[in-house]
Structure formats: structure tokens, C-alpha cells
């Protein structure tokens, strides 16, 4: 049987040029987030199937790579349904594993706990540009902080990172799930239908106001409720004034602190941000995960044409593990999309070490080769990257390749000419 050389569908090999950028970005992430007080952790790539199928992950739960039971536990003949055959799955995000991690280790962790987690996740999705079945996620989360200080910290840390990677003029869109629910309640939609309303609202940027109206009516909602709901969007501006308007109009169905906190987040971020970006109130922002309970946010970047990151507050997830809710909020950067944009820009890593290449003649005597290694060791002690290679017949092509790889100096060593 012939071995297959291409990766499994939806997976990919990563070449050295991209790995250089990825490694630089990962180091910059640790450095930047570390300066905000976040600490690194790691969780297993395999999670209990019960955790992954807990109806917390939205549509991602349809994309789980499930793992068969092993040995005597795998009883194919008596299995009646798929869940009789599996007991684990590859994680589809880092939030569910973090919640389990915190629940299991809370007694040994500070409060609040500021977590940084980077790692691969897997989704059985349809591969497309910027979307793979295995991809790196990068999350920061603050657990145990109920105030909006957590949201401010997360947004500032994430925007600072993007600024250091030379991204600017992006927009962080922000909303609150409590505002979404209050708008639905104010309009007269039944509470059990809120998710249906939000799913349709989430299409606003694609189908427009008229499209949302049509779909809501097709779902059987009353004309009065639909018109009252959509009329809100005619008056809500995408700034502080829009948040204030929501606070005033929805005061009978929403806690006043919801609008106040959102104003504080927007004003604080705007006042002290270091990167060049806008933070904008977006009452149509929904986010797909059902576990969000408060403020939600997304990073929109024109050069990508979509979201390159997002997150929000999920105060009830840890309670699913422990029976006691813990304040929690997180922000995830779309690592793969960021790397793709940097590659398209031909991004040059600014802190790359000086690179030298030593070309040695074939069959060089051991004592002369030793001198080459000694010289290379001296150069490396100065922080210079040194690559020692045997000269090829086509030396011109070899040098061109090395130059393309970033080697700025190429030295040649010949037998008896040291």
C-alpha cells in the first residue's frame, strides 16, 4: 500500500517561513499578556464527551471529533446509539476545558485568576480560506472578577497585542446579552423564542433590516412585536449615546447597571488605548455561544472581511461543573487568521537574530572542521544564528537559497585554506 504524502483533509503542514512568524507571534503574546498579569496554563486536547456535549458550545457541538472507547469498554455489538461507543472527544475550543480546569484546581489558584491558554483545537468543519479542522486558539480569561474591570483589561490587552503586530484601524464591536434579551422582552417576544430571534438578528449584516423583518414574520411572530423590535435599531447609534438610549428605553425590563457598565467599558478603553482602533457599540452583535451571559465583543478587520477574534462574559459555565457560579469573561484572538494576514503582508519578524551561513568544502579534515565549529560557537554566543552546510556543486543556487532564507552573510571554508 502506498503511503499518502498529503495531510488529512482540513489539516496542513506548516513551512519554516510561517513557523518563524508563528513562533514570534506566540512569544509576543506571552510577553504582552504577561505584562497585564496573565499566567500560562495547559489543558489536555481530549475532553470528556459529556463536557463537550453539554449544550454550551452552540453549533460547535455538531463538529466534535469523537473518540471511540478502547479495549473491553468498546462494545460495538450491544451499542444502541453513538454515545454508547464514545467517551471522549478532541476539544473544539479552550473555554470548556478552562472551566473544567478551574473547577478542578480552584483551591490552588488565586482569585481573580488571569489565565492565558494557547493550543490547538479541532472541529469537523468544511475547510476554506483561513479555516481548518485543526487550528491554534489563543485565549485570555479572567475568572472571579464580577466587575467590568475584567472586560476593560481583556480589551486593552488584546488591542495592545494587535498594535504590536502592526495592525491598526480595526474595530472592536461590543454589546451585552442582557441588552439583547431586554430588547426582545420590550418588543413582546416570548422568552422561549429569544434564541430564534437572536439567530435571525445575527444575519443583519448579510440580509439587512428588511431581511430580518421577513424572517421574523416567517417564524410566526406578530407584526406588532417585529415592528416594535426593529424600530429600536432606527434610534440606536453605534456609540456611548446609543448605549444611553438603550438604558433609557429599556429601563423597565433591564437593570440600569447594564448600560452604565457598558458605557464605562467603552469610555475607559477609548481613554487609555495604545493601539489605533475604534470601539463601537453594536446592538446587532449576538455571538454564537449560548454560554454568554453579559458583555460580548468581536474584532472586525477590513482587510480580512470578517471577525478575527471575539469573546464575552460567561458567568454560569463553571457552575455547570461545581454547582456554584463564578464570574468569568474571556477574549480569544483568531490566531490562524492573524498569521494568514501577516503572511499575506510578507511580514518581517523585527527581532530576528542575525543569520550567518558557513559553507564547508566536502571531505574537510576533522581538525579544520573543528575550527569551523569553534568559530560558529563563538558567533552563537553573541546571539547570531549560524548554519553550517557542505558546499554543493551548484554553489550559486545554494547561496541564493540561503539569502532567501534570511542569511545576510555567507562564509566559505576550503580544505587547506583556513
Describe this structure as you would to a colleague.
By secondary structure, the chain is of the alpha/beta class. 40% of the residues lie in helices and 20% in strands. The strands form three sheets. Strands 1-5-6-11-10-9-7-8 form an eight-stranded mixed sheet, sandwiched between helices. α1 packs antiparallel against α4 and α9 runs antiparallel to α10. The protein is globular.
Q: Estimate what percentage of residues fall within beta strands.
A: 15-25%
Radius of gyration: 27 Å
- Tell me the overall shape: globular
Biggest sheet overview: 8 strands, mixed
- Series of H and E elements: HEEHEEHEEHEHHHHHHEEEHEHEHEHE
> Considering DSSP H and I runs of 4 or more, what fraction of the residues is helical?
25-40%
Keywords, separated by commas or semicolons:
14 helices; 3-stranded antiparallel β-sheet; alpha/beta; 40% helix; 418 residues
What's the arrangement of secondary structure elements?
Layout: H1 16-35, E1 39-40, E2 46-48, H2 49-52, E3 66-68, E4 86-90, H3 95-105, E5 113-122, E6 134-143, H4 149-164, E7 170-176, H5 177-187, H6 194-201, H7 204-218, H8 223-235, H9 240-249, H10 256-272, E8 277-281, E9 295-301, E10 306-313, H11 317-322, E11 328-333, H12 335-344, E12 355-360, H13 366-381, E13 385-390, H14 395-404, E14 409-413
Parallel strand pairs: 1-5, 7-8, 12-13, 12-14
Antiparallel strand pairs: 2-4, 3-4, 5-6, 6-11, 7-9, 9-10, 10-11
